[in-house]
Every structure is written in structure tokens, then in C-alpha cells.
Design brief:
By secondary structure, chain A is an alpha+beta fold. Chain A is about 50% helix and about 15% strand. Classes of the chains: A alpha+beta, B alpha+beta. Chains A and B meet through helix 1, helix 2, helix 3, strand 4 and helix 5 of A and helix 2, helix 4 and helix 13 of B.
Chain lengths: ~120, ~900
């Protein structure tokens, strides 16, 4: 099953850019390679100690919101063990948004370095 | 994984999702994601060896609180809803968070050590310098008045507002006439006595005091009692001793009170021991009752200082009115002894500082400036540091960190750095003050009292911590505003950028201005000190040892015995190895001397209200030769002058200039006055010698009359021994010679003449040293400010500069542009600094010698120095600006 909900609007910066740290992080990680939720949580945990200390499950609402905006698309896959997983990919619109976010976040060098590089 | 584990996970997910009003398709998708996630997490726990039950529980716990997840899922339907922490932190959470902040700050120090290091070093430098200086100033220059209600204490003044003296008879009359306004009015005179306890003999500083002296000051003896009125008769010799004397000679025994010791050969009963910290002007070991017999007291000899305590309801003005009345009466009754000008009084505390007031003002100004510069510098650095971490703060806010947490982060960071710097500074100050006390040059006054003062250190630390907190407020405001984000973010950033730019420039201009003021003043004082050192004292100070003695006891009551003593001493000293000549006088240069009224035979005696006077110094033959005072005309004293009792005198060049213009004074006779009456015996001026600076190096020589010691041998003498060998080895020989002649009359103040001069300019040297230290600190701060601003500016403009370079801009022009900006700030700072320095130069005027407070060369040199220093500080960032690689610029913000 393929689920693409790409929007037609050009990527615009979120109304409150500074509050989009988690959004940018998720986009950045998924731009690296598509991942399913559990994998993404492990990647975040590895790279930013304590960022999701308020619960692993909170990454899913972020994924849903990004997908609603058209920045992600999800694709159901079946593992070798026969497990169904929803893998999230960054869309071209998402990559554009990520570039815009990055440009903004580059100003926040120290913080992003803490979050992305550990 | 077993079925019941899956069931439990399914139930948990249903608890989350079922309560939400989601589109069925979306709800199903969420269920699938959540269940898959929880199963996978549980299995990863099971792989670590825990039971399935525990693994599922842990996975559910790690997944997050159901309510929080529901809230976020709801919010996810709204665009860009921020993530929020699930609950308000508890106090324990806050402590843990602060600890985490500290750890985070520590990690960032390691990653970017420059700013933290500079903050710590700046604070350390500021605290060390200011605390050391405060301790030194406090100990050496600020005489504290440890007396109860010390504001009510008054002192007798002279015409210059300094401590004044009066005669015993005048004192008794004034005491009687001011009883209505003063609760006590005590007299005291400084002297030295030979104190002998058993076999220990020591010359000590002493005060002769009226019986109510301690009562007036409000200090009671630690042991025993103070004086009573009956003691003023002198019939029952008693003494009060200092705590130090009690420790040194009386074994700290309570039974010391009542013990009899010898004071100048007179058996004297110790009746009291004063507390250890008691002192009026300086350390004194023995207090003796002043013998005051109404009717028999001298009117013409002014040597008594006076200290009084205002009665309740009276102030200085009303008390002075009473003194005016008494003065007018005394002037009417004794016009020859009491002048028309009223006897003046002033606050004791103010009078204490009259000699050092201008220096204190200058020191206070300098210390304040240094502290201000330190605060400004630290504030700027913390601001820059917060700016550097703005990204991190924004991430935290975006991830739901409360504003308070960010503020806490900044404050924890600032306090950690300031505390580290403060601790280092306090340690350095502690060491520096102790080292100053131990290794002080011989002339440093009260060096023994220089010990680290806990309260001063604490004050310095508290002040810096407070300053640290205050200066991080702009950083907090900046970050919180910036982190507010949203459409206002860019605007806010622009505003802050502009404001920040102005603030930074203002800070640098202030730093430069402050360093100009301090460097200019330090420069003036250094020139002044060099000028003082270059002053010709009028004689050869090299290889010259000097000592003083004060003859006490009945055996030296007559002039002949005193004369014999000094003659024997002179002969004995000449036997010391290496000694070339020995001179005996009454006063030592730099310690001043007596002045006497006289008349000259070639002119009519001047009237009482316009009499002439000169310093008066009885000296033994060989005095001028030993000191190396050059003979200008005529001759000096010869042994025959004493043997034949020929009345001759030698005068100095200042005397000739003052009273003889171009004529020779040789052959003219002069006569002294005693108690306003001319003495019958006169002296013929037989020689003129060079001027000796008798009072201080900074004071011009005054007219002086030297006469043979045989004519008027004084009870105190100054001995000068010229040696061809090392001075240090002679000191013990000189001490021994005094013991050989009369062990009951120990010499004191045995030191080289070079040492005497070093001590005489010690205050100036100390003052100069302090200002130089201040100036160096200020220069370092200003340099770091100039460097920091330029580096910051280049950093901010990396992209722009890089692009310009990529488009072919001339690197030289880029470099020149950076230099121009920095030099303009420097020029503004120098201008402001010069104006302030010139405007406040009045405070310096009294402390200067041989250089004008507005010396243009000094001010010009300082401006040039600041320009050069700024140029050097700008060179690195300017060079960096001109060599930015375009690729670097593109990668940069």
C-alpha cells in the first residue's frame, strides 16, 4: 500500500520556526534514509540523548503531522518475519522544507550540533 | 512473543487511541504503528534477558504516558503544535535539571573553551587586583577608628587642617574653658622611652597622655585600670602597656598588672594592659601620664596634641564657637604665645585622612574604574556566550523547555564561570596580600599588618557574583526574546542585533576610555616617582648608615654629659672596620626638625608679629664631611670650636638666598630667642654649605642654621656613619657601638640612608605601583574588548566578506575596513578618556611632583599607546577577514 498525501502548496516555513526543532530533526533523519517508527526512535535516541525523554510514542504525532503537510509519505512494508511496518520517506516537498528549515537552523548552530551530532 | 503480551499491548494502545475522535482509517493506522512499535520494543527488552511481563511493562513505560500521547495526537491535527513536557517539574526535578545544566555547560566549555576561559581569567584578574588593592589600601592608607561613637571625637587642628599642637598651659585653659561642649578633652604627646623588664631592654614608642585619654577615646584597658587624675602629678610613676608589650616582656601574665618595670631608668608600676587592636595614630607600647601641674605648665612650648569627645547635643560648630571664645581670651592674656587665629578643631576621623585624602580619592576612583571595566567585560563576554548558544536555547524552547529553564541555564552558566574566576582571584589575592606582608620592601609602612582580610575578600567575591548575575540579564532577555520565535523572530533578531551592536561598541569605548584614564594617571605618577628619585637630597646617600638615639635618665640631664656621650660614641664608631667618617646631628634628613626664631646682627630685630625663623640643627664636627654636604664658602665646624667654646654657626644656601640675597653672610652674628626673649649669646656665621632636603624629597630645602653640638647638645641625636665597605655588615657594628657606650640607651632605626630615602617615598611608590597595576588590568581588558568586538564583527560578516572576496574585492581593502572600524571605536574611547582624565586630574594634583596634572606629553603618549595596542589587537581579526575563503562563507550562516 502506498500512501502519498503530497500537498500542492510550496514549502513554507512553519509559523513558529523555532518551535520546529523536532520536526526538523525527524525530517533530517528520514532524509538520511527511510525508516519506520521504531527505527526512527532508536536513531533519535542514539543521536540525541534525552530528546524524547517524555515518551517514544510522541514521535508518531510528529510523523503524522509531517505527512499531513506532504513532507513525508508512508509506505507499508512487510519484514522477513512477516511483520507489517509503515516506513516513512521524505518527499521532494519535504526535502525543500528541510533545506529551508536547515537554513534557519544553521543559525542555531550550537543547539543543532548538540541534537544532531550528539 | 506470547499472545497475552500482545493482548496487553493491544489493550494499552486501545486505551490511547479509543478515547480519541479520530478518522477510523487514521485510528487504524495509529493502532498498527503503536502495536508494532511496542512489540518490537518488548522483544528488544526480552533479548536482554528479562521476562516478557517485565519487557512489555518497560516498553509501555518508555512509550509515554497515555494522556500525553492523546494530547499530542490531538495536537498533531493542528499545524506545528509544539511538544510540551507532560507536567510541571518538581523541586527535585529542578535540582536535577540545574545539575544537568551545569554538566551541559561543562561540556560546552570543553567544546568551546575560549569565552569561558576569558571570563574566568577576567573575573580572576579583577577579583585578585581589586581585592589585593582594597586590602593594601585598607591596611596602609585607611586608618580605622575603633572607638565607640567615634563620630563624636574631635582633634586639635593646625592651619592646614592637619593635627595641631598646643602648649601644656594652653591645653589646661582650653580644657577648662570647653567643659560645656566637650565631654572630655585629652592631651597626648609622642615620645620614645627605654623600657627595661629584668634584663630585657628595649626602646619603644610611647605616648605621654592626660589622665582621661583612654576615657575620652572610650576604650578601657583589657587588664587593670587606666590613669586617674592623681597620676598627672607624676609623684607615683605608673604606666599602661600595649598588648604586644605585655606579650613580649610580661609573659602575657594577668599578674603583670602591679609589676614594676623600668621606664627611662625610673621604677614604674604597670597598672593596665590595653586591648591588642588599640591604637590612635600608630603602634605604641607604653602610655605614661602627662605631668600637668596648673600654674607651672609651660605656655611657649607647643607639643601637645589634643583629642576630645563632643558632649551630647553639641556638634563641631557649637564646639568651635566655644573654642573661639577661649582662644580670644588666651590671645588677649598671652599675645606673645597665642596668636589671633582661634584654636581650631575638626572631626578626628576626617583629620586622620587629611594627609592621604587625595590619594584615597584617586585610589577609590581607580579601583572603581577597574571593577567597572571588569564587570563590563564579563557582561559582554557572557552576552556573547549567550549569543553563541542561542541556537541551543532555541532548540530547547522548541522542544518544550520552559523559559525559566533557559534562564536557569544562563544563570547557572554565568555563576559557574564567575564563581570559578572569583575563586581563583580570591586565592591569588590571598597569596598576594600575604606575600606583600612578608616580602614588602623595607620602607613599606605597616607591612607587618598586611594579612589577608576575610571580610574584604568576601566583599570582593560577593560584589563580583552580584555583578555576574546582573550582567547576565541582557543575555537572558536576548535569548528569551529570540527564542520566542515565530514571525517576530527575525524582527526581534534584527532589533537585538542592532541594539547588541551599539551595546558592544559602547562597551569597548568605555573600556578604552577607562584604560586611558588609568594609564594616564599611572604615567603621571611614574614620572612623578622618577622625578622624586632623581632629586638630589643634597648629600651622598651611598654607603651611609644612620641610627638614632634618645638620651633619657638623670645622668643625661646636663648638656655636658650629653655632649660627652656623643663624643665618645663618635670616637667608638670610628673604630669600626671600614668606617671612614662619623657625623652626629640632631635630626635625620626627611624627618624634619625644629625651627627657631632668630635675629641678625646686620639689621634691626624684626617685630614680634613678623619674626624670622629657620630650622635649627646642632651638629658635631665631621657632620658635613660624613654626609658629604658640600662646603660653598667659609668653613665648617672644627674640634677647636667645641674646645674653645667659640660661638660659630654654619648656614645653608637657602638661608643665604632668603636673608642675604647676593651678599655674603660670613661674619654676621645671629642670636636665637627663648620664650620670646632674645638669648644673650650670639653665633658668628663662619660658613655656607649646600642645601639638604630636610623635610621630604618633594619639599624644597628651607633656610637652616647649623651650630656646634657643644653649644646646645640635644637629648636626641642622629648618627651618620660613612663606610667604604658594605652597609649591611656595618649595621650590627653600629648597634654594638651604642651598647658599648651605654647599654641603657639603645639605638633605634638603624638603617642605611638609602633605606631611609626609600621609606620616605614609600607612599608615592605604593600609589604608583597600584595605579600601574590598575592601568595594566584596564589595558588588558580594553585590548580584549577591541579584539573581541572585531572578531565578533568579522564572524557575523563572514558570508558577506567571503562573497565580496569571491567577487574580486581587494583583501587589503577588507583588512583596512576592519581596522578602520576598530580604530574609530578606539579613537572615540581615547577622546572620552582624555576628557575624563583631564577633568578629574584635580584628584591627582596633590600626589604629583615635578610633572603637571595636565602634562600634554603624558596624555599624548597614552593616546598613542592605546592606538598601537588597539592596532595590534585588531591585526588578527583584520587578517582573518581578508583571508576568508568563499567556500567557508557559503557554508557559514
Amino acid at each position: 500500500m502506498t500512501d502519498t498525501r503530497e500537498g500542492t502548496r510550496p514549502p513554507e516555513l512553519p509559523r513558529q520556526v523555532a518551535k520546529g526543532g523536532a520536526t526538523t530533526l525527524v525530517l533530517a533523519l528520514l532524509a538520511d534514509r527511510p525508516m519506520y517508527g521504531y527505527e526512527l526512535v532508536q536513531a533519535i535516541r542514539e543521536r540525541s540523548d534525552g530528546l524524547l525523554s517524555f515518551g517514544e510514542g510522541t514521535v508518531y504525532p510528529i510523523l503524522y503531522a509531517l505527512r499531513d503537510k506532504g513532507y513525508l509519505r508512508s509506505e507499508a512494508q512487510e519484514s522477513k518475519e512477516g511483520r507489517r511496518r509503515r516506513v516513512y520517506h521524505v518527499t521532494p516537498l519535504g526535502l525543500e522544507a528541510l533545506a529551508a528549515y536547515r537554513s534557519e537552523w544553521d543559525r542555531l548552530t550550537e543547539g543543532m550540533r548538540l541534537a544532531l551530532d550528539g | 512473543m506470547k499472545g497475552w503480551g500482545r493482548d496487553r499491548i493491544g489493550a494499552h494502545v486501545e486505551e490511547i487511541v479509543g478515547a480519541l475522535d479520530l478518522d477510523p482509517e487514521v485510528a487504524e493506522e495509529v493502532r498498527e504503528d503503536f502495536v508494532a512499535h511496542l512489540i518490537e520494543t518488548s522483544e528488544s527488552f526480552i533479548e536482554t534477558g528479562v521476562s516478557e511481563d517485565v519487557a512489555v511493562a518497560r516498553a509501555i513505560e518508555a512509550f509515554g504516558h497515555p494522556e500525553e500521547l492523546r494530547r499530542r495526537l490531538r495536537a498533531a491535527r493542528r499545524p506545528d503544535a509544539p511538544l510540551r513536557p507532560p507536567r510541571d517539574p518538581s523541586p527535585a526535578d529542578r535540582v536535577e535539571a540545574a545539575w544537568n545544566d551545569l554538566r551541559l555547560a561543562a561540556r560546552s566549555y570543553v567544546r568551546r573553551p575560549l569565552i569561558p576561559l576569558v571570563v574566568v581569567l577576567t573575573v580572576a584578574m579583577g577579583i585578585a587586583a581589586s581585592t589585593t588593592v582594597y586590602s593594601v589600601v585598607e591596611t596602609i592608607l585607611v586608618e580605622s577608628l575603633p572607638f565607640p561613637e567615634s563620630g563624636a571625637l574631635v582633634a586639635l587642628l593646625n592651619g592646614d587642617g592637619d593635627f595641631g599642637v598646643t602648649s601644656p598651659a594652653n591645653y589646661l585653659d582650653v580644657r577648662e574653658g570647653t567643659r560645656d561642649v566637650l565631654a572630655g578633652f585629652s592631651a597626648y604627646a609622642s615620645t620614645t622611652v627605654v623600657a627595661a623588664v629584668g634584663t630585657e631592654v628595649e626602646r619603644v614608642d610611647a605616648y605621654l597622655v592626660s589622665a582621661d585619654f583612654f576615657e575620652t577615646l572610650g576604650v578601657a584597658p583589657r587588664l587593670g585600670q587606666s590613669f586617674e587624675a592623681a597620676h598627672e602629678s607624676g609623684e607615683d610613676p605608673v604606666a599602661v602597656v600595649s598588648h604586644a608589650f605585655w606579650q613580649r616582656h610580661l609573659g602575657e601574665a594577668p599578674e603583670a598588672v602591679g609589676r614594676t618595670i623600668s621606664i627611662d631608668g625610673t621604677p614604674t608600676r604597670v597598672i593596665g594592659v590595653m586591648p591588642s587592636r588599640f591604637r590612635l595614630h600608630g603602634a605604641v607600647d607604653v602610655w605614661l601620664p602627662l605631668t600637668l601641674v596648673p600654674g607651672a605648665a609651660s605656655r611657649g612650648s607647643n607639643f601637645l596634641f589634643g583629642v576630645g569627645r563632643l558632649s551630647r547635643g553639641h556638634d563641631l560648630t557649637s564646639a568651635q564657637a566655644s573654642f573661639d571664645v577661649v582662644s580670644a581670651r588666651l590671645h588677649a592674656e598671652y599675645p606673645r604665645f597665642v596668636g589671633e587665629r582661634p584654636i581650631a578643631i575638626g572631626g578626628l576621623s576626617e583629620t586622620m585622612t587629611v594627609g592621604v585624602r587625595s590619594r584615597l580619592q584617586l585610589t577609590a576612583l581607580a579601583v572603581t574604574l577597574v571593577l567597572l571595566l571588569v564587570c563590563v567585560n564579563v557582561g559582554t563576554l557572557l552576552y556573547a556566550r549567550a549569543d553563541e548558544r542561542r541556537g541551543e536555547f532555541d532548540v530547547r524552547v522548541s522542544l518544550g523547555a520552559p523559559r525559566g529553564g533557559i534562564i536557569r541555564l544562563i544563570v547557572v552558566d554565568a555563576l559557574a564561570l564567575v564563581a570559578a574566576g572569583g575563586a581563583i582571584g580570591v586565592l591569588v589575592a590571598w597569596w598576594a596580600v600575604g606575600a606583600l606582608g612578608r616580602l614588602a620592601p623595607p620602607g613599606l609602612p605597616r607591612a607587618a599588618e598586611l594579612v589577608p582580610d576575610g571580610s574584604v575578600l568576601l566583599a570582593g567575591l560577593v560584589a563580583t557574583l552580584a555583578a555576574g548575575v546582573v550582567v547576565c540579564i541582557p543575555a537572558v532577555r536576548q535569548v528569551v526574546r529570540g527564542a520566542a520565535g515565530g514571525p517576530g523572530l527575525e524582527r526581534a533578531r534584527g532589533r537585538i542585533g542592532r541594539t547588541g551592536g551599539r551595546v558592544r561598541r559602547g562597551v569597548v569605548v568605555t573600556q578604552i576610555a577607562g584604560s586611558v584614564v588609568l594609564t594616564a594617571y599611572a604615567g603621571l605618577l611614574v614620572q612623578s616617582l622618577l622625578g622624586l628619585r632623581a632629586v638630589d637630597p643634597g648629600f651622598d646617600t651611598e654607603r651611609l648608615v644612620t641610627a638614632q638615639v634618645s638620651l633619657n635618665g638623670a645622668q643625661y640631664d646636663d648638656s655636658a654629659s650629653r655632649w660627652r656621650y656623643f663624643e665618645r660614641l663618635r670616637t667608638r664608631l670610628l673604630e669600626e672596620p671600614g668606617v671612614q667618617s662619623v657625623g652626629v646631628g640632631t635630626f635625620r634628613p626627611t624627618s624634619g626638625g625644629f625651627t627657631r626664631r632668630f635675629a641678625l646682627s646686620d639689621r634691626p630685630p624684626p617685630p614680634d608679629d613678623a619674626y624670622i625663623f629657620a630650622t635649627f640643627d646642632p651638629v658635631a664636627p665631621g657632620y658635613f664631611e660624613a654626609l658629604g654636604v658640600p662646603l660653598r664658602s667659609g668653613r665648617t665646624f672644627e674640634p677647636l670650636d667645641a674646645a674653645a667654646d667659640r660661638p660659630v654657626a654654619v648656614v645653608n644656601e637657602a638661608f643665604v638666598d632668603e636673608f642675604f640675597a647676593d651678599r655674603s653672610p660670613l661674619g654676621v652674628w645671629l642670636g636665637f630667642y627663648v620664650n620670646g626673649e632674645p638669648r644673650s649669646d650670639q653665633l658668628e656665621i663662619v660658613g655656607v654649605v649646600g642645601d639638604v632636603r630636610a623635610d621630604a624629597l618633594s619639599s624644597a630645602a628651607r633656610p637652616a642654621i647649623y651650630l656646634p653640638m657643644s653649644f646646645s647638645p640635644m637629648s636626641s641625636g642622629a648618627v651618620f656613619v660613612r663606610t667604604g665597605a658594605d652597609e649591611a655588615t656595618l649595621l650590627n657594628g653600629v648597634r654594638q657601638a651604642f651598647r658599648d657606650i651605654d647599654p641603657t640607651q639603645p639605638a633605634y632605626s638603624i638603617r642605611s640612608m638609602g633605606d631611609v630615602y626609600a621609606r620616605s617615598i614609600e607612599r608615592e611608590r605604593l600609589m604608583t605601583m597600584l595605579l600601574v597595576v590598575f592601568a595594566v588590568v584596564a589595558l588588558v581588558l580594553a585590548t580584549s574588548g577591541v579584539f573581541g568586538l572585531a572578531s565578533y564583527s568579522v564572524g557575523r560578516r563572514t558570508r558577506e566578506i567571503g562573497l565580496r572576496l569571491a567577487l574580486g574585492a581587494d583583501p587589503g581593502r577588507i583588512m583596512a575596513g576592519t581596522l578602520r572600524g576598530g580604530l574609530l571605536n578606539t579613537a572615540a574611547g581615547v577622546l572620552v578618556g582624555l576628557i575624563v582624565a583631564a577633568g578629574c586630574s584635580r584628584v591627582l594634583a596633590d600626589a604629583l611632583f615635578g610633572v603637571a596634572a595636565l602634562d600634554p606629553v603624558t596624555y599624548g603618549s597614552v593616546a598613542l599607546l592605546l592606538g598601537v595596542v588597539a592596532l595590534l589587537a585588531l591585526a588578527v581579526p583584520a587578517r582573518r577577514a581578508s583571508s576568508i575563503h568563499p567556500l567557508e562563507a557559503i557554508r557559514h550562516d
